[in-house]
Design a protein that fits this description.
Length: 431
């Protein structure tokens, strides 16, 4: 019969229609597994996705925030009394600021020629001062080797003279431990138009100004002692003040707005930010300039060591929304179907009698034709018929042909090419 061979297999498969058929398996193992998996998936969705992750909420992760800081306290440093204007920089009360705890001052510097102060520029003759990179050190090298003191000679520079000597030992301002930091933070969740500040509403906070932040007793107080911040970040104040360092004061606003805005409260936490790098510590230089009476310009150079505080605000807010609720509910119901996949794998591969179940589950069915109908002539050019071939019925359709229906090798022809086994409609046969 030439007709079936002309029709490739993939064409037949492409033009076949698949429809699910329900097979009820009366097996305790599969049945119990199925229910257990369904229960697990359901528990996961209810417990984790909905209750814990609050998947029914619309979430706003864009937090708009503004931070204003103010440091208070009086310190003593090298015979002088310092106030906020002396040791806080920048003075505007930004979210990133430095409390200077140690200073190396180089006063009365003027433009001119002088010997370099760094040990690396030690020299014996002018030759040692040539060919060096001119950008290191405190100024431009003139190429001369000049006496630094009675015993030492160093290269001469042109620049601010005398150059800074930063290897000296200077004290630290220990009073900074008792300074207080006041943080004013207002936030807004634009999606919900929700606004809040870290201060109690006007009229409510009577003791604002006297409270001190404490992680357990006063977790909402916006006034923090610097020593506490350093301690809560796991650092030692004396060490940190000597080397300088960067600390983060994190304010977290994680809000469930379904429970009311009053429950939306800030949470403070503290870490050190520069502790991971090898070059720990924080310092910077700045200078103040003045003119002397003789008209020359002078400056005071300061190398300042201090604790830099970065106030970082993060957070998100959630509120019930119908769209995420629907999407996640549908996802939950769809996922329950995963149990079927698992049970199919067990049923068709690992259970005793898997072959038997396989045979019952997969079944191929041909187009139905009435068993008593006279074999019609195929309409010319009918679908899947091979034009130009004569295909007389080879055998009268019979209900007995049903037994040959299941995925047997003889039924792989074209739908139209093998009309002879047209009665294979399930095991019950054709009425
Ligand atoms: C900080 O204040 C406490 C109590 O007022 C005081 O005992 C302590 O000496 C102060 N620390 C410094 C470094 O001044």
């Amino acid at each position: 019969m030439p007709a079936p061979r002309r029709c490739p297999r993939w064409v037949i498969e492409f033009f076949s229609y698949e429809t699910p058929k329900s097979v009820v398996v009366r097996s305790w193992v599969v049945g119990a597994t199925h229910r257990a998996v369904q229960l697990l998936i359901l528990a996961y969705f209810i417990g984790w996705v909905f209750l814990h992750e609050k998947a029914y909420q619309v979430r706003d992760t864009v937090i708009e925030s503004s931070v204003v800081t103010k440091v208070k306290g009086i310190g003593r440093y090298e015979g002088r009394v310092l106030d906020t204007a002396d040791y806080v920089t920048p003075p505007q009360g930004t979210s990133v600021f430095v409390v200077v705890t140690k200073q190396i001052l180089t006063e009365q510097q003027a433009q001119g020629l002088c010997p370099e102060s760094e040990a690396a520029f030690r020299c014996r003759s002018d030759r040692d001062c040539r060919g060096r990179s001119p950008t290191t050190g405190s100024g431009l090298l003139t190429g001369r080797c000049v006496p630094y003191n009675e015993t030492l000679r160093t290269c001469e520079i042109r620049g601010w003279c005398p150059p800074e000597v930063d290897t000296v030992d200077v004290p630290i301002m220990l009073e900074a431990e008792n300074f207080t930091l006041f943080i004013k933070n207002s936030i807004r969740f634009p999606l919900f138009g929700f606004e809040k500040a870290n201060l109690p509403p006007p009229g409510a906070g009577g003791d604002l100004g006297r409270c001190r932040f404490h992680p357990q007793l006063q977790p909402l107080c916006p006034i923090l002692r610097l020593g506490d911040v350093v301690r809560l970040a796991g650092q030692d104040f004396r060490t940190l003040a000597a080397t300088g360092g960067v600390l983060a004061i994190k304010i977290g606003w994680v809000c469930d707005l379904d429970r009311g805005g009053e429950r939306c409260l800030p949470r403070y936490s503290f870490t050190r930010l520069d502790g991971l790098s090898r070059a720990t510590g924080y310092n910077f230089r700045h200078a103040r300039y003045h003119h002397c009476q003789d008209g020359t310009e002078r400056r005071t150079l300061t190398k300042a060591f201090g604790i830099r505080f970065d106030v970082l605000v993060y957070g998100h807010a959630g509120k019930f929304g119908i769209v995420p609720t629907l999407i996640n509910t549908v996802a939950a119901f769809t996922s329950i179907g995963v149990g079927t996949v698992l049970c199919d794998i067990i049923l068709l591969n690992f259970l005793k009698g898997a072959e038997h179940y396989k045979a019952r589950k997969f079944e191929e069915v041909r187009t139905w034709r009435h068993p008593l109908a006279a074999p019609r002539r195929r309409p010319a050019g009918g679908w899947a018929s091979a034009p130009g071939t004569s295909n007389p019925p080879t055998r009268a359709p019979s209900p007995l042909a049903t037994s040959a229906g299941h995925r047997d090798g003889g039924s792989r022809g074209c739908p139209g090419g093998r009309r002879d086994v047209g009665g294979t409609l399930g095991s019950k046969g054709v009425p």
